[in-house]
Q: What sequence folds into this?
C-alpha cells in the first residue's frame, strides 16, 4: 500500500492529509496561510505539516493543490491573482524536492477538486465532465475522456474568468464582467451590499433568503447567472456531466432548482447533461492532490 500526502493550499488555511491508494484520509493537519507575502514562510509551513504526517506514515510522494495558473510539468506557480500574497513565481516542486526525498506533483486547486470528483465522487462514472467550485471565487476543472485539460500555456479551464457580462464588474484578473464577479460567495456579498448597504458574509446572506428581500433578489440573480453559464459550458463542451462543488454548495437547497430551471429555459437543446452537486467539499483538495501524485508514482 502506498501512502502520500495531499496538500490543499488556500487563502486562509493550508490543509494536509495522509491519503492511501483508495482515497481514504488517514490523518489530517492544518496551519494558517502566511499573509506576509514571504513565500518561504508558506513553504516552511507546508514542510512542517508534511514532516508531522510523515513521522507516522512512511509516505511515497507529495501532491499539492495551489491557486493560480500552475505549470504542472515544472511544478511552478505562473501567476496567482488574489488571495495567496507573494505566491506568484514559486517553484513549489523544486523547493519541496530540495527539502524531501519524495516526488512532488503540483496542480491547480480546482483541477485537484475535479480529479477527486472524477476518482471517487459524483463524476466517477463519467469519462468527460466539467467541475465548478463555488467559494470566494469560481474555479473550474475539465476532464475529457478521463484526461485533465490544462491548456497549451497552463492557463486553460479558468472558467471563473469567462466573461458573462461585457463591461461588467471589474475582476482581480484585470478583465471586466468575469463569471466569478457574478457567481461566487464574494459576488453575493458584493451585490447584497450594493442593494442593502449592509456588509454580511455570504453564509449570512444565503441563510436570510426567506426573510430578507435583498438576499432573495441577489441569490435569485446568482442562480440565474449560473444557469446562463451552464448553457455556455454545454455549448462549448457538451460534457456528460457538470459537477458543482465548493463551500457555496452547502446552501444549494435554496438555489439549486432555480438554477436548473433557468438552465433549461435558456438552453437551445439540452442533450441530457447531468448537473450534480459534488460529493466532497472540504477534503476534495487533499484527495485530488493526493491522486495527482499517486498517478505519477504508480506509472
Ligand atoms: Zn477575471
A:
Amino acid at each position: 500500500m502506498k501512502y502520500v500526502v495531499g496538500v490543499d493550499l488556500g487563502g486562509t488555511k493550508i490543509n494536509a492529509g495522509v491519503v492511501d491508494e483508495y482515497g481514504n484520509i488517514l490523518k489530517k493537519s492544518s496551519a494558517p496561510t502566511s499573509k506576509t507575502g514571504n513565500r518561504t514562510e508558506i513553504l516552511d509551513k507546508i514542510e512542517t505539516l508534511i514532516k508531522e504526517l510523515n513521522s507516522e506514515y512512511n509516505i511515497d510522494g507529495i501532491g499539492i493543490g495551489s491557486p493560480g495558473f500552475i505549470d504542472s510539468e515544472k511544478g511552478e506557480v505562473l501567476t496567482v491573482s488574489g488571495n495567496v500574497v507573494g505566491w506568484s513565481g514559486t517553484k513549489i516542486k523544486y523547493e519541496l524536492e530540495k527539502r524531501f526525498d519524495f516526488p512532488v506533483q503540483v496542480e491547480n486547486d480546482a483541477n485537484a477538486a475535479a480529479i477527486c470528483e472524477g476518482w471517487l465522487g459524483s463524476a466517477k462514472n463519467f469519462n468527460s465532465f466539467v467541475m465548478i467550485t463555488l467559494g470566494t471565487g469560481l474555479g473550474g476543472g475539465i476532464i475529457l475522456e478521463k484526461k485533465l485539460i490544462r491548456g497549451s500555456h497552463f492557463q486553460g479551464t479558468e472558467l471563473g474568468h469567462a466573461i458573462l457580462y461585457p463591461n461588467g464588474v471589474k475582476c482581480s484578473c484585470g478583465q471586466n464582467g468575469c463569471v466569478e464577479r457574478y457567481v461566487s460567495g464574494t459576488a453575493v456579498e458584493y451585490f447584497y451590499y450594493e442593494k442593502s448597504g449592509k456588509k454580511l458574509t455570504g453564509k449570512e446572506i444565503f441563510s436570510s433568503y426567506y426573510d430578507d428581500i435583498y438576499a432573495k433578489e441577489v441569490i435569485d440573480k446568482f442562480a440565474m447567472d449560473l444557469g446562463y453559464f451552464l448553457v455556455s459550458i454545454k455549448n462549448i463542451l457538451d460534457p456528460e456531466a457538470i459537477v458543482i462543488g465548493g463551500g457555496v454548495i452547502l446552501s444549494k437547497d435554496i438555489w439549486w432548482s432555480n438554477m436548473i430551471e433557468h438552465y433549461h429555459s435558456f438552453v437551445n437543446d439540452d442533450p441530457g447533461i447531468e448537473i450534480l452537486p459534488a460529493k466532497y467539499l472540504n477534503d476534495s483538495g487533499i484527495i485530488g492532490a493526493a491522486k495527482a501524485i499517486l498517478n505519477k508514482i504508480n506509472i
User: Anything to note?
Assistant: The domain at 3-113+282-297 is CATH 3.30.420.40 (Nucleotidyltransferase; domain 5). The helical segments are 39-54, 92-99, 109-119, 185-196, 202-207, 213-237, 252-266, 284-297.
